[in-house]
Amino acid sequence: MKQCLVAVIVASSCLSVSSDSFANQTETLVEQANQCREIPARLDRLACFDGVFATPLEEHTTPVADNPYPSEWNRAIEARDGLEPGEGWALVVEGEGKDGSAWVALPAQNTTFAEQDAPVLLLSCINNLSRVELALPQEAADARIQVSVRGAMQYWRSDDYGVLFSSARGLPAIDMMKRIGNDSYLTLRSNSDLADGLQFNTRDLKHGLRALRERCGW
Q1: Under DSSP, is residue 125 helix (H, G, I), strand (E, B) or coil?
Q2: Which of 127, 144, 156, 182 lies most in the core, judged by the most C-beta atoms within 10 Å?
Q3: Residue 2: its pLDDT value, please?
């Protein structure tokens, strides 16, 4: 009987220690989680929560880009880098008809960026949405910029990193594409020094825009 009583006392003591330890761990997790909430950047905040709660990360079997930038930025730069010297633009097509996607990348013929790294004007129809975007070789601080194409003015918004400025999707982008393709040369006008005066070779661009028109139905 005494042995049983001792065992019960020991077990009770262990449970008490375990409960105190669990309570302390829980309090620590709550405190760390509250600290994560103070982080302003969304991606950094999520990474903080993942670290606190040991969230398992999904394994990817497909290769990923070695930068955190948007997929549109990577499309633009990859298409630019695949061009031969003297070529004004590149057309990339995926799939057929309205079930497919297509984009045209136009590297700037002039640039103020280091090592003559050229910005890219990206015209696209992806997932049945028309877009016009400007991909920059380096990050810019502007949240949005004013852009004029052959007299038509729009405001283009920046992504989270400042490397991709995008027009409104749909009809505003379609109108901009039509204006871009109306002549053999384009000079972009902007209130941003990074974009103002950029020149693009748009010769025969209407042939490239046909693939976008077929997929987005305009």
Answers
A1: strand
A2: 156
A3: 45
